[in-house]
Amino acid sequence: MSTHNVWTHKGTFLLAAVGSAVGLGNLWRFPYLTGENGGGAFILVYALTIFAVGIPILIAEIMLGRNSRRSPIMGMRFLTRTHNTSRAWESIGWLGATSAFLILSFYSVIAGWAIHYTGLMFTGSMMEVSAADVSQHFDRLLASPALLTLYHTLFIAASALIVGLGIHKGIEAGLRVLMPSLFVILLVVLGYGALIGDLGAAADFLFTFNLADLSLEGWLQAMGQSFFTLSLGMGAIMAYGAYMSGSASLTRTAFAIAVVDTAVAMVAGLAIFALVFGAGLDPAEGPGLMFVTLPLAFAEMPGGALVGGAFFILVLGAAISSSISLIEPVAAFLVERFDMTRPQAVTIMVIASWALGLLTVLSFNLWAEGTIFHALFGRSAFDFIELLTNIFMPLGGLLIALFAGWALTHSEVMKEMRTNERWFHIWRFLVRFVAPAAVAFVFLRSIPQVEG
Ligand code: PHE
Ligand code: NA
């Protein structure tokens, strides 16, 4: 018995998955982590894990969702029963819910910064200001827990409203406009960055691969980012897979998601670093990178107030289509398991995540130093939560790969994949051996180095 309705259009899953994948991970997190980790080597590990590990696991995760047609936790429970395997596999669902809850907590805080900048752009108060003014402005925003909490609350409430009312399933038309517009405006910013900045230096920085440059924690961050950016290993894709039309192609869809997501990250990275090197800013600026470079470009651009305002609105749209995919799997579980109404389930998930998000808010000001997180883990609460997601998402992905690779039968997989035997064997080799080995390799190298 299937507990889910199925999306009738073949393309709806792709659109929803791209909506989930493309977000702050591409625009904010990818450039900032790349900058902190010295550029090319980080990108090399990131790209390798996307294509050798990410795509096969993406196929696996969609497959588990579509095969079970349930929310991730209930879906894994169902699959372990029908396959007579250990209930330990249910940990995939629980781990995913934990990751979703952790990610939403800081995602919403950062998206809140974009709310602030949307206002700044449209009012024109950032026009023709200097680089120093732009960065001072950002520092002042971060110094205010009240302002950060306000924006965090607004963003998470808007996301909760959309999922709670169930209208996240009707935003297909919106995504059809949003995604191409975001890409176009990024190209405009890239073009402008090439004009006033230093695109050559950006390309050198991003595409000079020297693995020796990458710290051991950098390896973990690069792999974590490849999962984060694809929304992978935490149930979001599984939850959407449960609604996917049975006739859409798994492999083609997974490739398309990875290619679109990577393209957005690369264009954003090139644009931001062209501006960074052109203006002599610091590539290792950290989480503020996007918020100090792009406003600077808009400040000098003709019509920058409008273009900048439109840009940050599109960023918010991309962020909200990701945050709703963080809420959905947990909410669907609470509905299926405890018979809650959808609004109740969403409220519980979101209030908990909101409260945890206050730790991230304070990590940028009152608790930037000297907390228990610094004493125990050598980092702020925000950095610690990011570290956990860099571990939990690949770990979830590893378990998904192993379950799909070893527990599902040949005929079940073929029913979902409907490709020829050759592709089946390539995929199964990747999920059985390559993906688990790659994840284990990075874990064994880097986790013992994460200093406490
Ligand atoms: N992939 C999203 C981004 O890049 C973040 C995300 C992670 C969304 C996990 C859902 C699940 O912004
Ligand atoms: Na992404």
From TrEMBL:
> Do you know which InterPro entries this protein is assigned to?
Na/ntran_symport, SNS_sf, YocR/YhdH-like
Q: Which PROSITE patterns match?
A: NA_NEUROTRAN_SYMP_1, NA_NEUROTRAN_SYMP_3
One annotated Gene Ontology cellular component of this protein = membrane
Designated name of the protein: Transporter
Give the UniProt subcellular location, in the record's own words: Membrane
Q: How does it sit in the membrane?
A: Multi-pass membrane protein
Q: What GO molecular function terms would the record report?
A: symporter activity
What residues form the membrane-spanning segments?
12-30, 42-64, 92-115, 146-165, 177-202, 222-243, 255-281, 301-334, 346-367, 387-408, 429-447
Q: Which Pfam families match?
A: SNF (PF00209)
Annotated family: Belongs to the sodium:neurotransmitter symporter (SNF) (TC 2.A.22) family.
**Chief location bin:** membrane
- Asked if the record carries the keyword Transmembrane, the reply is yes
Keywords from the named record: Membrane, Symport, Transmembrane, Transmembrane helix, Transport
Is tRNA processing among the key words of this record? no
